[in-house]
Amino acid sequence: MAVPMQGMSMPTQPCVLPQQQQGVNQQTQNIGMEKLDNIAKVKSLLWPLKESVANTMKVAAQNIYLNATVDAGLKTNDSSMPRFDKHLEEFYALCDQIELHLKTTLECCNITSCSQRYSPFLVSKTENIPIIADNLTYNQYLNTVRTQVGYAKEIHDALMMAARSITNSSD
Fold this sequence. Notes:
Layout: H1 19-36, H2 38-71, H3 84-118, E1 122-123, E2 135-136, H4 138-170
Parallel strand pairs: 1-2
Helix pairs in contact: 2-3
Protein name: Mediator of RNA polymerase II transcription subunit 29
Family: Belongs to the Mediator complex subunit 29 family.
Main location: nucleus
């Protein structure tokens, strides 16, 4: 079910590409997008889902009809009734796959949004690329991340001290 990411950190999404990179990386990302795009996977699962709903309803109708004929005494109970539970399980499996892909897409968009909010500059992957005014080198990016982690730790420690002082004062 899952496709290996092949060296990419997250699936490419149309909503996650910055404006400056779209023209340069459009061709290379379209190739990877076919394999990794969760929205494309959802779209490919919609037709099987539609067929699964139709098959489930068809089997349900057949079972209702056969039960009605047995109840009316027109036919004896035979074991050739189609299995409704198997068709229903197939439908739920497809729904679960679609839900998983949609949740993954939403999480990717949320991560990208947070990344753009808290670190709005692009990160250059190598030192050989000429530095553009809005780009960070990888070392600058690492320093930014270390600083953010340090601030988060300080906030955590302050909250823990406040919680301890509240519990100590209530005793």
